[in-house]
Amino acid sequence: MKILVAVKQVAALDEDFEIRADEKDVDEDFLLYDLNEWDDFSLEEAMKIKEAGTTEVEVVVVSVGPDRVDESLRKCLAKGADRAIRVWDDSIEGSDAIAIGRILAAVAKKEAPDMIFAGVQSSDQAYASTGISTAAYLNWPHAAVVADLQYQAGNKSAVVRRELEGGLLQEVEINCPAVLTIQLGINKPRYASLRGIKQAAAKPIEEVTLSDIGLSGADVGAGNSMSHVRRMYIPAKGRAEMIEGTIAEQAAKLIQIMNEFKGV
Amino acid sequence: MRVANSATALVDLALKAGDSYSAAAVYSIAESKQKHQLKELMFGKRRDALALARWEHTPASVLEALCSASDDAIVVRLDKNQNTPTLAISKLYVAENQRSKSSASLTVLVAQHRHASLSVLKNIAQFEDDEASLLAVSKNLAANSEVLSILLDRFESSSILAALQKNISEHPSTSPQLLEQLYEKGDVYVKAAVIGHANCPLQLIDKALLEENVFIQRQLAADKRLNNEVISRLSLHQDKSVRCAVASNAIASNDVIKLLAVDESDVVRRVIASRLDLTSHVISRLMNDQDVWVRQKLARNPTVSFGVFDKLSKDLQADVRRGVARNPRCPVKLLHLLAKDEDYWVRSAVAYQHRTSKQLLIELADDTAVDVLSGVANNPNTPQRLLKKLTASAEADVRRGVILNPSATRLTLLPLLEDAYYLHRLMLVGNSKLKDKDKWHLCFDPDYQVRFTAFKYFAGHFIKSSS
After folding, report:
1. Which chain A residues are closer than 8 Å to B445 by Cβ?
2. What is the per-residue pLDDT across A150-168, written as a single tens digit (0 to 9) for each?
3. Three-state helix/strand/coil letters over B324-359
């Protein structure tokens, strides 16, 4: 039995940052990279199934990204994932979440997992569509925003509780294989043990190219995505002024501002 | 690997590690040639230099070494970093002034920096026109009365005067003379702040007695220089905040305390319940108060008698029973009773209580609640064999309790050096029970923060030995 966990190395912004010269992203020097928080929960859910079942379960983490992503994959290996796969080709640069879903689906076809877990969303881009698009390319059932999972390795279906608005939970039975997008708080992610970290450092990360999974540059990248970033910018701030003084003075100042605004 | 026996050897190891954070930790003990290599490692990549300029733990010596950078983004981060030393802040201010087009936002950052020198602050107060910078100086705790006085004099008829007066009236360095000036010219909020100021002269207190404004009276009611007659009058004030201030005033007489113990406001009675000079009559009244928080405050009060503890330990509200269990004078007999409380939060308080006996802690160690076990792990009376067992707990809070326990021995702590949670390993770097050879491997920890802390710890040995 195999669970494929799709993970992403996300970028966090520092307090102050600069936008890249092409205005399409933040300058990389100002970004701090880490494993997407949602994916930590996805991996833990897979590890729970692996550790609870009598059936042997292989947990494989997969990510699409350049060399630096190895650091996040090693983190997953240190927490107990059996294998790690990184897909990259320069032509992938600029791919939207749907194109990434296509790549992950291609990996899934090759790996033939029984379940795929992904985070509900990534903390940097927040499209919340990678997992779902993977399911669409595979033509598999999917459940989004899973806050609870009842599933034993080898079962033909799983019962999931989906988190809805207003504190509602929706209990859904879903046929397997399926793609589940996992919500924060579903479990308590573990810290990697020092032993696990040392072992992970020695484990290989499988580097996969587009051709290895039956895709080409024509299937991915900004030019072949359904959406692309036109520009990224910081919106101009509105004016704000703290009005000081006595209540009478504040009222007088307020009237003056309103008159100026109306052009009186 | 053996512990480095010289500063040079330690710096060489940091260089070999090739990590900018480890390099930052040893920078202050490096020789000039090594410093050059460390700089290359720390600042060679803009990304690393930016990260160190922003990081709240970056040592002052590293930030100072960075302050000659011409990169605007780094300068902003240095101005914001609260560790940037005085000399570096002064250099940054001078450099900013020498630029053809200086930035007001950078001046604001300098003006609000806790390490800004008096001469820089004085210069801003005297010559800058940017309002945000001037207001930042008026709030900066590094400013002295002279700087604050310059601001008030310079902007006597300016639109920012009200804001300056407000900030300066709350500034701890404001002199009595300046406070008098502010009281004469300020609005009611400024006057109230002046009356509440630690340097407020007595003559202003006398003047304030004639004021009817409630904001001023609230500050006045807390002043310890008032006479009994004024305190009694203010204890009848219709505003509950004024009565609260009286209730917290150490000079309030027994009659005033007795009166406020039956005050209509819960908030006032809560303040009274925390006083350390309550008579038995007042305590009896508060013990039966309908407000849970009043009874809880009383339960935490270390001056109450056994009878009070006994009654409150049977209170229907768990928060009150917990208050008894947390009280440093809680009788041991009651701790035994509360250790069996149905509420885990009460049992947790017993587990944390330093009067709890070894035997009781052994019993509490069988509890399933994490908060109770954390208390057992923290308690210096817990037997060592139990602490050792708790180091294997699956709960990080429990293991952290052992790390924080002053009685935990070296042998108990050793397994925690391999704890999965990086913060635990980091906390152990400074633990005096562990030997240097135990901690040495933390210099090569997978987590950069642990490595930084360990290198800094060992670097500290050489700073001490050279001074």
Report:
1. 194
2. 999 999 999 999 999 999 9
3. HHHCCCCCHHHHHHHCCCCCHHHHHHHHHCCCCCHH
Smallest Cβ distance to A246: which of B54, B76, B187?
B187
How far apart are the C-alpha atoms of B65 and B52, rounded to whole Å?
A: 11
Alpha-carbon distances, residue B173 vs B144, B177, B183 (angstroms): 5, 11, 16
B351 belongs to a structural domain: no
Q: Nearest residue on chain B to A192, judged by CA atoms?
A: B420
Query: Which 8-state DSSP code applies to residue A165?
Result: G
With a cut of 90, say whether residue A242 has pLDDT above it: no
Q: Which residues neighbour A235 within 8 Å (Cβ) at sequence distance 6 or greater? A: none
ipTM metric: 0.84
pLDDT digits (tens, 9 = 90+) for A184-201: 999 999 999 999 999 999
- The pLDDT, as a whole number, for residue A14 is 79
Domain limits for position B284: 221-302
**What b-and-e string marks burial along B278-309, b requiring 16 or more CB atoms within 10 Å of the CB?**
beeebbebbbebeebbbbbbbbbbeebeeebb
**Residue A192 with chain B: CB contacts under 8 Å:** 420
Last residue of a domain, one of B63, B84, B105: B84
Bridge partner list, A161: A148, A171
Contacts of B427 (CB under 8 A, 6+ apart): B400, B403, B404
Superfamily of domain A2-224: HUPs (3.40.50.620)
Which of B73, B160, B418 lies nearest to residue A194, judging by beta carbons? B418
Q: Confidence band (pLDDT; 50, 70, 90) for B100?
A: low
- Cβ distance B418 to A193 less than 8 Å, yes or no, reads yes
pLDDT beyond 50 at B467? no
Residue B337 covered by a domain: no
E strands of A126-252, at which residues? 142-150, 157-163, 169-175, 178-182, 206-208
Interface test with A, best of B157, B164, B187, B190 (most A CBs within 10 A): B187
Q: Which amino acid is at A82?
A: D
Nearest to B16 by CA among B443, B370, B319, B436: B443
Q: What phi and psi values does residue A111 have, to the nearest 5 degrees?
A: -85, -25
Is B449 strand, coil or helix? helix
A142-146, A236-240, B93-97, B321-325: lowest mean pLDDT where? Answer: A236-240
Q: For residue B36, tell me if it sits in a domain.
A: yes
The answer to whether B339 and B364 are in contact (CB under 8 A) is yes
Would you call A136 exposed, middle or buried from its count of C-beta atoms within 10 A (0-12, 13-18, 19+)? middle
**Domains identified in chain B, total number:** 2
DSSP codes, A3-21: EEEE--EEEEE-SS--B-T
End-of-domain residue from the set B302, B327, B344: B302
d(CA A197, CA B50): 27
- Give the pLDDT score at A237: 79
User: How are strands ordered across the β-sheet holding A115-119?
Assistant: A169-175, A157-163, A142-150, A178-182, A115-119, A2-6, A58-64, A83-87, A206-208
Q: How far is B304 from B272, CA to CA, in rounded Å?
A: 13
Q: Which residue in the block uniquely carries the two structure tokens 């079962």?
A: A155
H or E stretch covering B463: helix B448-466
Residue B33, in any domain of the structure: yes
Give me A263's structure tokens. 């052009």
Per the CB < 8 A criterion, the answer to whether B244 and B267 are in contact is yes
Query: Taking the domains of chain A in order of start, what are their residue ranges?
Result: 2-224
